[in-house]
Amino acid sequence: MISDITLGQFFPGFSTVHRLDPRTKILLATAFIVCVFLANNAVSFLLLTLFTLWLIPTAHISFSVIAKSIKPLIVILIFTSILNIFMTKGASDPLVSFWVLEIYTEGLVRALFMSVRVIILIIGTSLFLTYTTSPISLTDGLESLLHPLTYLHVPVHIFSMMMSIALRFIPTLVEETEKIMNAQKSRGADFSSGGLIRRAKALIPLIVPLFASAFKRAEELATAMECRCYRVDKKRTKLVKLTFHARDVLWMLLLVLLLGVVIALRILPNHVSSDALWYRILFYSI
Amino acid sequence: MDKQTILDMQHVSFVYDSDRESSSYSSEPTEPPALSDVSLTVKEGEYVAVLGHNGSGKSTLAKLINMILTPTEGVIRLFGRDVTTDDFTEEDMYDMRERVGMVFQNPDNQLVATVVEEDVAFGPENLALPREEIRRRVHTALAVVGMTEYAHHAPHKLSGGQKQRVAIAGVLAMKPKVIIFDESTAMLDPLGRRQIVDLMDKLNHEDGITILHITHYMQEAARADRVIVMDDGHIVLDGAPREVFSQVERLRDLGLEAPQGTELIHRLRADGWDIADDGLTVDACAEAILQSLGLGKE
User: Fold this and answer.
1) Best to test chain B binding among A228, A236, A237, A238 (most B CBs inside 10 Å)
2) Chain B residues with CB inside 8 Å of A164's CB?
3) A172 and A39 both lie in a single domain
4) B41 within domain boundaries
5) Which of A63, A112, B3, B230 has CB atoms 3.0–4.6 Å from B44's, for a disulfide?
6) B138 vs chain A: nearest CA distance in angstroms?
7) Can you tell me the ipTM of this complex?
């Protein structure tokens, strides 16, 4: 059944991470992304990796889910790693050298860092956002965070209303797609055989009625909303109020600490966090 | 004391596309009016059913009352205020919409939020009511329609009848004086339909809400206090269900059929039976037949 699809893979639950305010989670995810991109040495990466590994059970997400989310990345990771390994020229002598190919320490390090960076970036942000936050509360959080922009006449509320209506109608339209598909199949439409072009063409009798009905729905919905006194330009109140709790503050402090450490490791004098030193510890000891 | 007149329409006509896009349609003949010279008065607390086959203008009537459309000609007064004059502002319009709720045909296309409770809150949110008040209204509205246990469900997982009940709760949360049901039962299964009609009865009898039920199901219309039959943009019959449904031939001419029980009694009477013809429900008709056979319970 295609109606089983969910947007962005939300896993409902009651973990500490689930219960955080959506605004907090958006901020945490942003801070985490900054950390990952600022990290430029092995200690930082080690720290971030450990943090991510700790975050997975904390958010009550199983490791197999994480593995599945990483799977599609593997090909890209291997490809870019190979490029990094062979294309990076180092200052010292190559580690291995055969035919025209040379492998330098720097290349290996760069490939490793890049892979770790991508992997923890994906895992970390999905743990904070999509896995533990329902799309609708994500929208609410975003609206609340972007609220200051209304003073610059950015129609934040309209965007969030559009978002939530889109989310509301995804299941309805999926159901409708199924119905139309069955109706067309019963009249002999074939959606699954033939080449790419033929299959794309077969979708036309599916898409046209779907759009027609979507426009009709939109019009009816607009009328219904107007009848319930909805006005774009008027101030509304909200039933659900987002509130920060102690845990939100705690998590933010944690991420600020992490960010601080990463920044410190980046700007500290070379002899402490010297990349070269850490390369040696990491690679020459193996 | 007289009840307040809620709706007063005088010689109202409406033509679709009469001014809109007139240039592009100028070559085509003008459309026949969807509504012509309709006059109608509804008093507070009435339970009115509007009947008519497709294209008889009954939905146009609903849209005019709720100011989605403005009449081409004539005057519409809501709660004593003329909505067709220029000094009837947008502010006034939303004020009226707060008092006149509307439930549409397709339950899917009137639910806005992804959670039942938030959808019910949508109207009060638009009125910018304080949060505690919204919470109270949502709670009461869901209790009235019997959907309290579904407050945190996603609307798309509910059945048609349940969705429609949520839609009604959404309207009730605005505390309306009048609710217009625009074929709200047409897309439901028999069970869902019965639930909605029962709810209409309850809202009218217990909460005193004026109900305008637009439908093409005779049995549903029979439960109202007053039935209006529309044909070709005109009001052709207007009276108590008993009076209206006893005109079986007239109804048939209009493309409508009287409830089956009434139809049966009408034919029996035509054959010379002596039966009271004031029954509308199946049970009442059965009782009337038993009476005439001398088998009635007395």
Assistant:
1) A228
2) 112-114
3) no
4) yes
5) B3
6) 9
7) 0.84
**Chain B: nearest CA to A188, how far in angstroms?**
27
Q: Is residue A149, in this structure, part of any structural domain at all?
A: no
Q: Is residue B52 part of a domain?
A: yes
Say whether both A183 and A278 belong to one domain.
no
Whether residue A130 is found in the same domain as residue A171? no
Q: Which residues contact A180 (CB under 8 A, 6 or more apart)?
A: A206, A209, A210
Number of domains in chain A: 2
The residues near B243 (Cβ < 8 Å, ≥ 6 apart) are: none
Chain B residue numbers touching A167 (CB-CB < 8 A): 114
Closest CB to A229: pick one of B98, B112, B130.
B98
Decide: B92 and A196 in contact? Cβ < 8 Å.
Answer: no
Indicate yes or no: CB of B130 within 8 angstroms of CB of A237.
yes
Residue B160 sits in which domain range? 5-258
pLDDT band at A195, cuts 50/70/90? confident
Q: Are residues A130 and A252 in the same domain?
A: yes
* Residue A255's pLDDT band (cuts 50, 70, 90): very high
How far apart CA B285 and CA B275 sit, in angstroms, is 9
Q: For chain B (length 298 residues), average pLDDT per consecutive 10?
A: 80 76 49 84 92 85 88 90 85 90 92 90 92 94 93 88 94 93 90 92 92 89 90 89 84 80 82 77 81 72
pLDDT tens-digit profile of A222-231?
999 999 989 8
CATH of residue B153: 3.40.50.300
What is the value of pTM for the model shown?
0.79
Q: How many domains does chain B have?
A: 1
Q: Is A21 exposed, middle or buried (0-12, 13-18, 19+ CB in 10 A)?
A: buried
B156 touches A: beta carbon within 8 Å: yes
Query: Do A221 and B110 lie within an 8 Å CB cutoff?
Result: yes
Return the pLDDT at B271.
85
Give pLDDT, residue A94.
76
